[in-house]
Amino acid sequence: MSFSQDVKIEIAQNNLNPCCQKAQLAALIKYNGSLVISKQQLTLKISSESAAIARRIWFLIKQVGDFEIELSIIKKMNLQKNNIYNLTIVSKVKELLLVVGLWRDAMPAEQVDLAIVAKECCARAYIAGSFLAAGSVNSPLTSKYHLEVRNTDQKQAEYLMQLLRRFNLEPKLVVRRNRYIVYLKASEMISDFLRSIGAHNAVMLFEDQRIQRDFTNNFVRLDNCEVANEVKTIIAATKQIDLIKKIQKAGRYEMLDERLLEIANLRLANPEASINELCEIYQSETGNQISKSGMNHRLRKLRQIAEQI
Length: 309
What we know:
Elements: H1 3-11, H2 18-32, E1 33-38, E2 41-48, H3 51-64, E3 69-75, E4 83-89, H4 93-99, E5 103-104, E6 107-108, H5 120-134, E7 135-137, E8 147-151, H6 154-165, E9 172-176, E10 179-184, H7 187-196, H8 200-249, H9 258-269, H10 275-286, H11 292-308
Antiparallel strand pairs: 1-2, 2-4, 3-4, 5-6, 7-8, 8-10, 9-10
Helix pairs in contact: 2-3, 2-5, 7-8, 8-11, 9-11
């Protein structure tokens, strides 16, 4: 089972206040519902490929009113052979749409009445319903964080984005295959989204995996940085030793100033030491302190002498 499915099963089992039940059902109808006129009668069909979501829709309809529901199951003729669960309301369709804010001015409304999602808890329930119907989120085990909700038109997408911004989320919009995709990329925002829709177990798993991944990445980055610094130290030390040996071959080594001779001997005796380590060794052996800039100054003097040869 995918991470998305786990999230959906979790939020499909959450208890909701009566006002929130209407909001979540409104989203499920808006995203997965279709109105059909059959035998001069208006019917509403809500479809889902998930048994858990179909049960949720059935439960919510029964909670908001006394509506008759017909259930049919169709097996898809593909390799996965998933079931499609169709819940059909054959009577009192207008009444149901009125209850969930999807009927205005004697006709179906384009968007859910804002009164349905006026309360913060109801807005969260609507967002959860939109994710149940048309959402997906990448597993935190992958290296690519991504959460999206697919919308059939731009107005529907903008309506959802407006609700998300109420919770300090900054969604983005892209058109893909005639669908308007509202998505989040930042891991912190995905975590906040899951928390806002009541997927608390998913948040814990997501955060745990994210923290482990970030720790591993930072550790590897730090390790790579340390290796790079060590390589730089070895390269610099090797060049310094080569210059000192050049001075020796030219017979000018014993003619060096006493302070330069000390540093030259120190470098030859410690070929892998960094500048900081050379300063510490110098202090330990001579009892005198030398700064990093002072050490670098003397090594530059040795380089200048070697380059003049």
